[in-house]
Design goal:
heterotrimer, A mainly beta (about 100), B alpha/beta (about 350), C mainly beta (about 160), A: about 100 residues, mainly beta, Ubiquitin-like (UB roll), five-stranded mixed sheet, three-stranded mixed sheet, 1 helix, globular, C: about 160 residues, seven-stranded antiparallel sheet, two-stranded antiparallel ribbon, 3 helices, 9 strands, binds flavin-adenine dinucleotide, metal-binding (chain C), 4Fe4S_Fe_S_CS (chain C)
């Protein structure tokens, strides 16, 4: 859910460009230029990848590009810090298993 | 081919922006790089009015202070590159940065590292479950991008960040189930605690989180009481249904780059971790390399800005060699304000830490 | 250790009030700021010079009730939202409180709201007499609520459906 009536901030969503992107084969929407992780969070997606050794689910933790909890595969490239990666129309975002691999699967 | 600048600043938080503001009064060709999409660091997420001195934007909301700093920067003198990470420093004058296009070499005369801090994690069962977020992450989602970040939150940590972020979450329509604090006392300012209490939020001191549980995401937390020696008291467990556990358990200075650069790094507990030794004008043991803000010891934004002013002033002076009395006068003002800011019981720790740091040999 | 460090609730003995405050017939500030924190905007905000932070910025604000004209700028400026204006005799049988309210939606003038004390306990009902927002308050809305006279020193938050 977006914060349309906030006591301090005005996000001016009506002036922003809505874009579509694909997450694990499903079409989702977000605003252009916002971090991919923020758009996913707004769509209710909490699990972004699985840890390399113990196969544990991982979501956002720091959201400032420091902790690598949000690494995902974006347009075929693994290990993208989605909390600081701006969303573009048509991005193909995939859940990342383990360390990810260069072929993007 | 590499680009050349007089001053290269890493980090566009309050410290980096303040450094650029002061430096640009006396010199030009200043570059700021930041790995985030938007400038402002932690400051751009602070929707509450700031404390501190009237002279330093007190009573202005953090997000507005950030805009004031950004608007004040001269476009001719200061170049800003977002989405750009600094990943290595090579003595005496080379910074390696990474952006969409790849790696680049940047040459500089002076360098100011204002890389901020990273939020701490604590150990409890399933602390890696999606839905365990740093307080700053909640702020990024709701205050920068307008995403309602959760429905029901339990906050761990009753320092200022835990208290303030709880209040900001409530402003975003999120329910705060409580603030849990291991210490017997509320660490943050009373006024922040009071805002939560009058809205009915319990603050549970001498309590901590035993664990969070759920299927692929946080669904509940179990908390328990702590005894005088911080030992868990059996039989005091309580289950709270939540979708998010928010951690506000302190920050650790980001000194990786300074460390790699060869700065003299010391562990100073009062400054929240490993920090680079620096002199009274924020210069490290490597001449021409400065540090400012949370990266030089976790304090708050007013101190970060003053340290930035100081580093920017000295860096510019060393390059331009302008009128010495102008330099000394400005130095004195910043020193005075830093000193006055660091008085009082809440700043004793940082004050002691800074003292310990400065007596170390350069 | 002082109780507020565990409860988050101010000790009212530490808060200064005008003499015979119950008899006052105009708004006066109640500054619930009792800790040595580095902060001084209240002292600069007051056009009458009624509030001062003397010496170090961490000193507690001092108030001169004689000088205060009840303008409420300090309520909007205080970063801790810790200043309230209280008028124990707002009308013949009501008192009133001016409090900062940074939530949405805003209550409507004339509407009835529930009142909460410093612990978040519901203590009664009040009526919204006025709502003001201004750039000078960094857009913190100030709400004037009238209530039973004996609630003015307790009511610190409002809610409504
Ligand atoms: C959740 C939270 C709430 C806070 N609330 C308050 C408050 O209410 N009042 C207050 O006074 N203070 C508050 N603070 C503290 C205050 O925000 C910080 O003290 C202040 O922002 C520190 O400024 P800084 O410039 O040192 O670091 P930051 O603001 O952290 O900025 C550092 C910047 O450096 C960038 N960076 C780091 N490493 C690199 C790299 N290698 N390459 C490129 N860029 C890099 C980061 O992206 C970031 O933008 C809060 C802090 C947090 C985390």
């Amino acid at each position: 859910m977006r914060l349309k009536d906030h006591p301090v901030l005005d996000f001016k969503f009506e002036e922003k460009k809505k874009v579509s992107f694909i997450f694990n084969g499903e079409t989702l929407y977000g605003y252009e230029g916002e971090p991919i992780a923020a758009a996913l969070h707004d769509n209710g997606v909490r699990v972004l990848r699985r840890s390399p050794k113990l196969n544990r689910d991982r979501g956002i933790f720091c959201a400032i590009g420091k902790c690598s909890s949000c690494l995902m595969n974006v347009n075929g490239i693994p290990n993208i810090k989605t909390c600081v990666e701006p969303l573009k129309e048509g991005d193909i975002v995939k859940y990342q298993d383990k360390k990810g691999n260069i072929r993007g699967d | 081919m590499s680009e050349e600048y007089n001053i290269v600043i890493v980090g566009a938080g309050p410290a980096g922006l303040a450094a650029a503001t002061t430096a640009s009064k006396y010199t030009n060709k200043i570059l700021i790089v930041d790995e985030n999409i938007k400038p402002g660091g932690q400051l751009s997420k602070q929707t509450h009015k700031f404390f501190g001195s009237k002279n330093h934007y007190a009573s202005v909301r953090g997000v507005n202070i950030c805009n004031i700093l950004l608007d004040g920067l001269s476009k001719e003198k200061v170049c800003f590159r977002p989405e750009t990470s600094a990943i290595g420093f090579y003595k005496p004058d080379t910074l390696i940065i990474q952006d969409k296009e790849g790696l680049h070499k940047i040459k500089g005369n002076k360098f100011i590292f204002a890389t901020g801090a990273i939020e701490n994690m604590v150990s409890f069962e399933n602390n890696d479950l999606p839905g365990v977020y740093g307080a700053g992450a909640m702020q990024t989602l709701m205050n920068l991008y307008g995403v309602k970040p959760a429905e029901k939150v339990l906050m761990l940590g009753a320092g200022n960040i835990g208290l303030i972020v709880s209040y900001q979450l409530m402003q975003a329509g999120v329910e705060i189930m409580g603030v849990v604090e291991a210490s017997p006392f509320i660490g943050g300012y009373h006024v922040h605690a009071a805002k939560l209490r009058r809205m009915g939020v319990p603050i549970l001191t001498s309590h901590t989180v035993k664990g969070v549980y759920g299927d692929g995401k946080v669904e509940k937390a179990i908390i328990h009481k702590l005894g005088g020696g911080f030992e868990p008291l059996h039989g005091t467990e309580k289950t709270i249904e939540i979708d998010t556990l928010c951690l506000a358990v302190g920050l650790t200075p980001s000194v990786e780059l300074l460390h790699q650069a060869g700065c003299n790094i010391k562990f100073i507990k009062e400054l929240s971790g490993y920090v680079s030794v620096h002199d009274d004008m924020m210069e490290t043991n490597i001449p021409g390399v400065f540090v400012a803000g949370d990266a030089s010891g976790v304090e708050e934004a007013s101190a970060a800005m003053l340290e930035g002013n100081m580093a920017g002033l000295k860096a510019a002076y060393d390059i331009e060699g302008f009128n010495r009395s102008v330099f000394l006068n400005e130095k004195e003002i910043v020193e005075f304000e830093l000193k006055s800011l660091r008085t009082g019981p809440f700043c004793e720790r940082a004050q002691a830490g800074k003292k310990r740091l400065m007596v170390e040999e350069r | 250790m002082i109780a507020y460090k565990t409860t988050g609730i101010v000790d009212m003995e530490l808060v200064s009030l005008p003499q015979d405050w119950e008899k006052q017939t105009r708004f006066f500030p109640v500054i619930e700021c009792i800790e040595k924190i580095p902060c001084n905007p209240c002292s600069f905000s007051c056009p009458k010079g009624a509030i001062s932070v003397i010496g170090d910025i961490t000193n507690i604000p001092q108030i001169d009730f004689e000088r205060c004209n009840g303008c409420s700028i300090c309520v909007g400026k205080c970063p801790g939202l810790a200043i309230f204006l209280v008028n124990p005799n707002f009308s013949e049988n009501k008192g009133a409180v001016i409090l900062p309210y940074e939530f949405r939606p805003l209550p409507e003038k004339g509407s009835i709201v529930r009142l909460y004390d410093r612990e978040g306990k519901e203590i009664g009902e009040g009526m919204i007499e006025a709502i003001r927002t201004s750039k000078a308050f960094e857009n913190t809305p100030l709400v004037t609520v009238s209530m039973e006279k004996d609630l003015v020193m307790c009511a610190r938050h409002i809610r409504f459906d």
